[in-house]
Design goal:
The protein is built from twelve helices and 14 strands.
């Protein structure tokens, strides 16, 4: 079986490629500028195709002869100034993937989405796979683009594709992966002062790829699956991290009134930089919410034992390269 992974040089794509070794012949779609740092020694075991999900013709070439597409590629940004780019990459790029698959007669698509695509509602405390998207000021440009990308995937299923949609929460890799949610580690490493009042949903990258592989083998297709290990308060999360990292934990509440203070805003920039959360009122409000993403559906199928948070954090801070410890 020939499996092509888009976004294979990113955090999730690289770990997934390693998890799927032996399942089939692994092919990767990469841009000319992509680096292989996260793939380590796996780089030479992958059949490479140069292209981009926004370039339809490059997908036509790359997808030729493939049996299965795993679509991990996408843009992560929560800034409103990136709204058009998010739609172009995440939504139109996914539409391109779906359309080329339909054209080529490739039947199976696994789409790595995000819990952001499920939307946010201040009235809800628990969200599961049955939650219906509602228009809300709490929905970020990123979440909107991923929601619309999912609509393209479901359209594909109506036109004959077998699909699985995965909605992971914040994925915890290693500190030196320097990708995506690894930015959250810097907040405690730099001993910042404030913590949001809401909750964080998280999952270890190693659990994430094991669940995806197992669900593709054992679970019904044409369904979505929330991937989330647990939900805890930001305060608890940072305290756990501070203990493991031997740093001072944030100990001041980021209350609604403080959100208006420019001085404090600069204090939390490292938490909100990169892809976790941006510097804007909308995402700060999201961080104040207590919402849990229910993993009951996945647990009913797999009964998975998640890696404890303390173990994840201890693994994340080690100096050795990640593929020596996976």
């Amino acid at each position: 079986m020939k499996i092509l992974i888009t976004g294979i040089t990113g955090l999730l794509g690289s770990y997934l490629a390693r998890e799927l070794q032996g399942v089939g012949e692994i092919h990767g779609l990469r841009r000319v500028s992509s680096t292989f740092e996260l793939l380590g020694d796996l780089e030479n075991q992958i059949q490479w195709h140069i292209g981009d999900i926004t370039d339809y013709e490059s997908l036509e070439e790359a997808f030729e002869g493939m049996d299965f597409i795993i679509h991990c590629a996408g843009l992560v940004s929560f800034s409103s100034k990136d709204s058009k780019k998010l739609l172009a990459v995440n939504t139109q790029g996914t539409a391109n993937v779906v359309n080329v698959m339909l054209d080529k007669g490739i039947k199976r698509l696994a789409f790595i989405s995000s819990v952001a695509a499920l939307g946010r509602d201040a009235e809800m405390s628990v969200i599961n796979e049955n939650y219906k998207w509602v228009t809300s000021d709490l929905n970020t440009p990123y979440g909107i683009s991923k929601h619309m990308a999912e609509l393209e995937v479901w359209r594909g299923s109506q036109e004959g594709l077998e699909v699985m949609v995965f909605n992971p929460s914040i994925i915890l890799g290693k500190v030196n992966d320097d990708r995506s949610s690894a930015a959250i580690y810097q907040y405690v490493l730099q001993e910042k002062d404030y913590y949001p009042l809401g909750s964080i949903n998280y999952i270890d990258i190693r659990d994430t790829v094991k669940l995806i592989r197992s669900l593709m083998d054992k679970a019904p297709w044409n369904e979505r699956y929330i991937l989330n290990a647990a939900t805890i308060s930001y305060r608890q999360f940072f305290e756990n991290m501070a203990t493991v990292f031997q740093k001072k934990a944030p100990d001041k509440k980021l209350s609604a009134g403080i959100l208006n203070l420019a001085l404090v805003w600069t204090k939390i920039t490292s938490l909100f930089r990169k892809t976790l959360l941006p510097l804007n009122r909308q995402t700060a409000q999201v961080a104040q919410l207590n919402i849990s993403f229910d993993n009951g559906k996945v647990q009913s199928i797999l009964k998975h034992n998640y890696i404890p948070l303390q173990e994840t954090l201890a693994w994340a801070i080690r100096n050795e390269k990640k593929h020596q410890t996976v």
